[in-house]
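Anyone else keep sequences and structure tokens together like this?

Example one:
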Amino acid sequence: MTEERDIVEEQPAAESTAAGAEPVPDPEVALAEDAAPEAQPVDEPDWKDLALRKAAELENVRKQTAQRVQKASRDGMRRIVSELLPALDDFERALAHAEAEEGDAEHHLTAGIRLVQQKMLDALRRAGIEQFSPKGEPFDPHQHEAVAQQPAADGAAPGTVLEVVQNGYRLGEDVLRPARVVVAG
């Protein structure tokens, strides 16, 4: 039995392939298969497309960040203005009271207060915040707050602002505080 085993082991490789073992691939056939388009792996990414997508993604992140910064800036300005506006209103009331009592609008104290008030308004203007007084304009509920209604006088059309009780303030298109007004009825 050992002799038979030795004889099988001594048979050439070609005979063992015929007996059912796997054939050895021909090198020329293997090269031809590698060159064929079907032989390329399907999973390889399109690098140009991937780079364009990542660039677009980065641009979107930049835009979103810029919008967040701008919104945070506007929100900060709103907070500061909401704290400063009552002081400006107090200046206006103090000046109106002092000028009405003294009978002299150019009194030194009122001139000094008016100067401080103007500096505060200029600082707000430089920050993009503007004061508005809609006297004579049509009433707009998005920009005005009606505190009273009076019969139309002097030919004013109904719905027109007759008097401004308190000025309004805007930051660009956003109304920070609506103007408090008396409307013609």
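And example two:
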Amino acid sequence: MRIKTDASLVMNSEKSSGAGRVLVLGLGNILLKDEGVGVHIAQRLQALALADNVEVMDCGTASLDVLLLAPGIEKLVVIDALRANKEAGTIYKARLKTEEQDKLEQIFSSDSRISLHQIGLIDALAVAERINCAPKEIVIIGVEPENIDCGLELTDEIKQRVPEIINTVLKEIEDAIHTK
């Protein structure tokens, strides 16, 4: 599948000087179709030439370990499936500052939680805050899944939204670089 992205959002290393570290985490279980959307997006982002201060990780369901091994992050961008009973493919975005991390529990409430790795993310951020290595800003980009049954491929509805999801992430990366 060829993905068309806004080329002006792909950074080169010259633009990144002086910017803080940005970590993009793709979460999800690729064995459950759309539940793996974060991982699929992370894999596509890893193929792009991003700024030197940007790291993209395909974390699967291991968010706790990864976040604790990546101190010094200015901005954390998390991509994941998020069920809020809207139309499949709906893209949600929530922006939090470090002092607002308690709002994560509202975002990942029991009504919207689809998998156990979301609990791991909340726990990881709480631990990171306690040891003073929490990111200053957290952006959650959620995608309403169409189907979370067994299967390795995203559904057609979510595949069609992939370029928009990627551009949403790239804009967050660009914002982090230009606000330094």
